[in-house]
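Deliverable D4.2, example record:
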Amino acid sequence: MNKSNFGNVKAFALNDNMNVPESALNSLRHDGVICIRQAFSQRWLDVVEKGITQALSEASTDIDIVKRKKDTGSFSVSSGAWMQVQPIRHFIFESHLSNIAWLLLETRQLVLFYDFLLIKQAYSDNAVTPWHQDHSYYPLDGKKAINCWTALDDIPLESALQFSKGSHRAATLHRAVDFENPENDYRHARKELPLPPQDQQESFATILTTAVDAGDMLVWYSYTLHSAPGNRLNRRRAAFSVNWLGDDIVYNAKPSLETYRDPGLVAGRPIICDKFPLVRSA
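Output generated by the structure prediction step:
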């Protein structure tokens, strides 16, 4: 039996070239997650906020708004907005974000996978994100996949993400869980896979977490187990993430969701097409 201890996600600052130091890459390799303080200025956050306004006004075609029982506030998510929302495209392609992802993925090719907006409104206490790994939802083989998650609000520890330190290193793929109701089976889950552990006191040796300010960015590998509490604050708790793929990733069509489907994709081949564009190559 493990009794989990809490530690801090290691934090770094961008260097003069607006990129991450080598020490940040070393920590990401070891811990599976890092924090980059003030990765984006208010100017770039304003661009994202403009995109959010457009996305939630139905400019984005993939929006889901959930209100949990007993909650006052709702829980909103939007995915793949870059294809319809110009400010989101501007942030992804014109900021220094891709430079950071390029270095951290240690890759010769950088592919944009998708963007993801996540807003927990005030008093969405029960909008808990269960323990999971992002890769469980991806029809992908390979390990070079990261989530670059930028805080749009100040987020205290009570509402902060939690990560199982080093859980990415085993590269064990867990079954996808249902975010809307963790008690239900996720309809696209691969049932031959083991469920991710949910009892942190029993299952995890060390949990890493940190409070973040607006503009801070968390980066983690797609195999890193993580979770988040609901939002008991009297204000919004929002983040915008962009997921990137490196040169070892291939498409496996499991599951074959519309979100990840494109006529140009072939199982066993790289996931590069109009929907998942190549952004940079060596």
